[in-house]
Amino acid sequence: MPKVHPNAVAPEPAATTTTSRAAEEEPPPALLTVWRKSLLFNCHGFTVFDAKGNLAFRVDCYASARRRAEVVLMDVAGKPLLTVRRKRLSLTDHWVIYDGDGTARPLLSVRRHVSLRSSSKTLAHVTPLGSAAASAAEYVVEGSYGRRACAVRDARGDAVAEVRRKESVGDDVFRLVADPRLGAPLATGLVIALDEMFGGGRGSARSLLRRTWSA
């Protein structure tokens, strides 16, 4: 009897095979581990690892949270990938995510949700900007960033990014799941904006998490 390869698949009708192939070719979500700490001495920031434990992104900020007007997300070599910049003269906490070093086009607007209802699950509204604005709807961030349990959802309610707790390691290390539709860099950029809004350090009444970085 001929040996059957363990990955062999029985023939299927053409339509089903096409659907199955499309599902197989769709890339899986990126699984990241975010550490709210810079690897540089006397520096604030983030260190982000991929699913294999390799360094994926980094943020190194010398300015304290009170003086910080922008945060730059870099790759392993220090190349700017995204710039998350505070929007001045805004009635609410408002950050804009730019491509590259901040001189390029804006990609997303992240505005803190304001509601008189303390029971509201909505944290922020994310609006695509520039060329992406015409073809993409607004995202909504729901849940609790301080409890490390929140999701960025599209108009259909599907999660394009999720922040999840990582057990037994404290609140400064957590998981980030990034759907390919959003991508790992933008999902990390949204985490930076959420941390600026809800990570404490500015005396906000809705600060949900005590900062552990030294200023």
From TrEMBL:
Mention any Pfam family matching this sequence: LOR
Q: Which SUPFAM superfamilies match?
A: Tubby C-terminal domain-like
**Superkingdom per UniProt:** Eukaryota
Composition bias (Low complexity) maps to: 1-21
Region listing for Disordered, in residue ranges: 1-27
What family does this chain come from, according to its entry?
Answer: Belongs to the LOR family.
* Name recorded for this polypeptide: Protein LURP-one-related 8
- Species for this entry: Panicum hallii var. hallii
